[in-house]
Fold this protein.
Amino acid sequence: MKALSIHFGKVEVEMNTGVDIKDITNYLKASIRESNIMDGNLSAAVVGSTGSVTTIEYEPGVVEDLKKAINRIAPPDQEYEHEKAWHDGNGHSHVQAALIGSSVSVPVRKGELVLGTWQQVVVINHDNRSRKRTVQITIIGTQ
Amino acid sequence: MKALSIHFGKVEVEMNTGVDIKDITNYLKASIRESNIMDGNLSAAVVGSTGSVTTIEYEPGVVEDLKKAINRIAPPDQEYEHEKAWHDGNGHSHVQAALIGSSVSVPVRKGELVLGTWQQVVVINHDNRSRKRTVQITIIGTQ
Amino acid sequence: MKALSIHFGKVEVEMNTGVDIKDITNYLKASIRESNIMDGNLSAAVVGSTGSVTTIEYEPGVVEDLKKAINRIAPPDQEYEHEKAWHDGNGHSHVQAALIGSSVSVPVRKGELVLGTWQQVVVINHDNRSRKRTVQITIIGTQ
């Protein structure tokens, strides 16, 4: 039985005012190469309560469609309780991020991320200001 | 301290035009038995950007209710930017899948998946055509 | 190469009729301390099909905003197919929980959960009755 190893990575992405969506797949692939892990599991988790991660086909149309859908689910121009106490204008950002989720798991096989041909891992900034978003990467598997 | 081991599995499910929802719990259970892992964690991740995984009570009523809710969140008959470039009719499929998410983690204890009595793991096809959907399984734990 | 170890924890939370949202971050932190794991990954998964887990800024405003958003996505007063067979009044609960998801991964670094300053891990009860909710914790990493 091969011993398991673990590898840690971190992606920092400059992001525009939300909803902004950026492809981080190449960072995850680089992290797998660094790890020398061939078969296992990669977890990607965004740090911060107004960010989220998911997978999409990263092409301009889907990116735009997803932004619109996110803003329909928790519209920026609605009244939020968060605003009454904090007045920072990002009540909708918190709700959007909580609904999408902060982490995703992606299988690693033969040294590669297992994604569909048109499937990429993305980080989303929902905040009402530009942010540097950090995504923590943890890869566990056999070399 | 017991050494950790890792096991890989794969489920392939023939699925109808979306929204189609299928129970894959028994495949995950079989994979745990194969692995001989008693205590750990199972990750299930769908391959492809128009599929998703989650857990539900897999009974016909909830399945129908979830399909309706998914089609309310991103209705098939709405205009999508994705369509303007690609004309493949599945703009809504991409948005639906991204909102639900591509992976789920389930605890393994004493050789069993830890789910509620009425809780099953399901794969969802959101695409506007029938698809064979692949779910990758990674189990990490002690035997 | 350091050997990996695994640790198991469990949180039980008394919850009110849904939508009820409770912060479980301190339980997860306690579990990390018990584990002596310094660097790795923590998975938290709710047991039961009418519960979910996610991360939010746990302050009363956001908690209220998220409850409202969840009840907009799958309103309790709508007609659900689940009700026609089961008459237990929680059709909306199942749909809400499935859309948010049952698990979350959080990185562990230097013996601490890596979350944003205003980011907490929460369990959500969507059921139409008070419930004791169980969240299973699995931590994998190096000591």
